[in-house]
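Task card 7
Instruction: Convert sequence to structure tokens.
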Amino acid sequence: MREFRSLVKPVLRQGAIEARRSPIHRWGVFATEDIEKDELLEESPYILTPVEEFEDSPTLERYSYGLDDCNSVVGLGYAGLYNHSFEPNAAYYLDSVNHVMVHYALQQIKIGEEITIDYGIESIEDL
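Output:
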């Protein structure tokens, strides 16, 4: 059997953010330069998905954003890699006109700092 060299790089970079291994959970999103409050981090397309499609795929559900009891979105780009914090330094909103998720800084984020969002959960056991 032919062996292939892995193409997965330890760092995936895009503008002022990059994805790399996180001490919080698997992968995370980190600042590659100082980021100011309200600065745009990323605009990423999303796929609107009925919740029942996740019944057979709990792994995929882990990377989705719940909208309501019927629908979730799966964000492309780094959207599924932002880790949770009860004290986040970033947030997002859905731009339904352009069909993109917009992630932005809630506060100044220092170079090298992990960028986190609030998943809207009550306790860490809900993850």
